[in-house]
Specification:
Elements lengths: L3 H7 L6 H7 L11 H22 L5 H11 L2 H10 L10 H5 L6 H18 L2 H17 L10 H11 L6 E8 L6 E8 L4 E7 L2 H17 L1
Antiparallel strand pairs: 1-2, 2-3
Helix pairs in contact: 2-7, 3-4, 3-7, 3-8, 5-7, 7-8, 9-10
Length: about 220
């Protein structure tokens, strides 16, 4: 099977390979693209994560559950999980998107992962698709501090450094890739006192800064 490695990573084998192909197809490549499957996968993801949080954390209030869910289904988390799956290597995109590094763009990766969830639902059933979602999310949740999920990485990093009486990090754009209408920013996050320098890449400077900050925060707290 063409995408056997990906299927192995999500622990699911498609009976209708064309569904998987559509899930991996960006609108720049074909009219038979993944946006309808993305819509389906988004609904599945929200429901699955909501039910998981409700069952797993009976003492967390509704407002905090909503905050946790929002942070678990956002673009950044989806893109992180997609990168772990090496999903970008499997995407079908038009020549312009390929040249612009579209297979690394968080928005495209996040949408494709949602489409993948939707494709599993269509290929099998709701319970099977939920199993695929949780197969990715449960290990990811195990490495998180749930109390920190409501805060963005730059805030977490700043609080960590201030608590240790260390200077705040500096952020610098080191590269801008792609055409003007579809730019990707590469930003560095430097903390000289700790000899830490990380990079983040995203469709906006702000997103790239957040990704770089998250990498630096992980180095400090791991």
């Amino acid at each position: 099977m063409k995408h056997a490695a990906l299927c192995q990573r999500i622990d699911y084998r498609f009976t209708q390979p064309l569904l998987l192909q559509r899930a991996l197809t960006h609108r720049s490549y074909s009219a038979a693209h993944n946006e309808r499957l993305e819509f389906l996968g988004d609904s599945l993801l929200n429901c699955t994560i909501a039910k998981y949080l409700y069952d797993t954390y009976p003492d967390i209030a509704e407002g905090d559950l909503s905050r946790l869910r929002s942070n678990l289904v956002n673009q950044q988390t989806l893109a992180t999980l997609a990168q772990q799956l090496q999903l970008g290597d499997h995407l079908l995109m038009g020549e312009g998107e390929v040249k612009g590094g579209g297979n690394r763009r968080p928005s495209i990766l996040a949408d494709a992962l949602e489409a993948l969830f939707g494709a599993v639902w269509q290929d099998a059933d709701f319970a099977t698709a939920q199993k695929v979602v949780l197969g990715l999310y449960v290990p990811y949740l195990g490495g998180l501090d749930l109390r920190a999920l409501g805060k963005d990485p730059k805030t977490l990093l700043q609080e960590q450094l201030q608590g240790s009486k260390l200077p705040l990090p500096t952020y610098e754009v080191v590269a801008i890739k792609g055409e003007a209408h579809a730019q990707t920013f590469v930003v560095s996050c430097s903390i000289p006192k700790l000899n830490i320098s990380t990079q983040g890449e995203g469709g906006s400077r702000r997103l790239a800064e957040q990704i770089a900050a998250a990498a630096a925060y992980q180095q400090i707290t791991s």
